[in-house]
Amino acid sequence: MTFMDSKVALRQLEFANKELVRREAFRSYNQTSLAKDGKFHPRVLTLGGDHTITLPLLRGVAEIYGPVSVIHFDSHLDTRKPSTASGPWLPGEEIPVTHGSYFYYAHKEGLLAPNNANIHVGIRSALDSWDNYKNDWEVGFVISHAEDVEEVGWQGIVEKIREVVGDNPVYISLDIDVIDPGLAPATGTPEIGGFTTHEMRKIFKGLEGLKVVGADIVEVAPAYDSPAELTQIVAANIGWDMLALMAKTPTVV
Length: 253
Ligand SMILES: [Mn+2]
Fold this sequence. Notes:
The protein has about 250 residues and is α/β, with parallel strands linked by helices. The protein has helices at about 5-20, 55-65, 100-110, 135-140, 150-165, 195-205, 230-250; strands at about 45, 70-75, 120-125, 140-145, 170-175, 210-220.
């Protein structure tokens, strides 16, 4: 991806990812595939970088499977409705997608499963940010807050996720800031009060059996990491768990 122009870079990613997921997988199963064309396709785990990449990645996944249920691990909603009032935009100018609004566009493009079958997990932010909540339900999400884990445990979080996504094909998008910044500090918009890596592991274990058709881990900023590469270790291990989830469950109807 070019570092000269982020719009071009996102297109490059979109085309490269589509090229990959359109292929036939090496592994197939003696059952009916979830994919619209009835074939088995590779499943991709993408590592980033700015969270905006989820939009072009979802375009690829939706082309193969149709709209998918998204499990979005993040401390922020990322469904913000772009407003011409909040930027240097000229009247009629197209507002660029950002790492806080890509789900708004994904919904508009019909990439997300209908009937609020998508869920944010680990949400928390400053108490004065309720404004961002206004638009979230209409974009198609249900919200699970980070602090819920104190009351319902990891089992309660898992139960809610499974209830929301049902039997749909699932895409997992994980912003590393869902983890507490004490454990994963190297990210652009850290928020206190996040999950521990232990809780995260438990939640992933609880998702076994979901039909995960793609995933990403984003907002890891290696330049901010400690010499011990704490954040990158967390991201790498979560990635391993995501791959295990995919490998364990065939993408069959
Ligand atoms: Mn995010």
